[in-house]
Amino acid sequence: MQPILTIDNVGKTYSNGFTALKPVSLAIRKGEIFALLGPNGAGKTTLISIICGLTSASSGSVHVAGHDIETAYRQARSIIGLVPQELTADAFETVWATVSFTRGLFGKKRNDAYVEKVLKDLTLWDKRDSKIMTLSGGMKRRVLIAKALAHEPDLLFLDEPTAGVDVELRRDMWRVVQDLRNSGVTIFLTTHYIEEAQEMADRVGVIRKGELILVEEKAALMEKLGRKELTVHLQTAIDAVPPQLAEFGLLLADDGASLTYTYKTGHERTGITALLRALDDAGLRLRDLETRQSTLEDIFIDLVRTQA
Hints:
Elements: E1 5-13, E2 19-28, E3 33-37, H1 44-51, E4 59-64, E5 67-68, H2 73-77, E6 80-83, H3 95-105, H4 112-121, H5 137-149, E7 155-159, H6 167-182, E8 186-190, H7 194-200, E9 203-208, E10 211-217, H8 218-225, E11 227-234, E12 251-252, E13 258-264, H9 272-281, E14 286-293, H10 296-306
Parallel strand pairs: 3-8, 3-9, 6-7, 7-8
Antiparallel strand pairs: 1-2, 1-4, 4-5, 9-10, 11-13, 11-14, 12-13
Helix pairs in contact: 3-5
């Protein structure tokens, strides 16, 4: 199947010589949720701006459903919905008016039933006659999503969609995004909340200092780079790790009452059996065992530090 979005060696260097984005090549599959993670200033918004035709690239090309974003801008842009990071909307317009007007900007015929459905899906129907200026930050964010969906796009960009949104509204938005994907919309998401990527994404990309350093299926990434920690709680505290346990790289807690062993989740042999045997041989008696699985956030932090 042809990708809905193809990015080929796209880079951005400004006239002062600053390179905001090193050449990026990436293909986004139709119907997937792709999450792009990166620190502030990593190049996430620059890449989205280029894809959506808001900023010109210094090199490379972008094709949306086969349409070049520069030479066939109108065709490409009609397929794209964009929810920007900034809360920008006409403060004196009503919710209904601003969403309906946005639909018209893309040349779509009036369709009150569709606009009503979008507003209901986003829990905005009761606010349809309210002016934007009277809404909370979370509701304004929902209006931006409604505007992005007004012209029925096949590809939706969400640039930090839940920034400044409380936990309850964030969870609601996750549900909306999943519903959109289930309806066939492709989602390209940037976020600081890594749990969002872990919750929703099919694939994950990591960008740092303008360079795309990794693209991986989320499940494969968690298996390949994930790790588990086994914490052994001891019956009696110790002052130091016995020399015969040095090979396991154990971390002794400050109170001396527990030892932590870290191992890769994808490895066939974990070394746990050998560790437990070695603990017994060293005369250490166990009170309890506890395991912890690494999160996508742990993996992200490790990747960014490794590439520093």
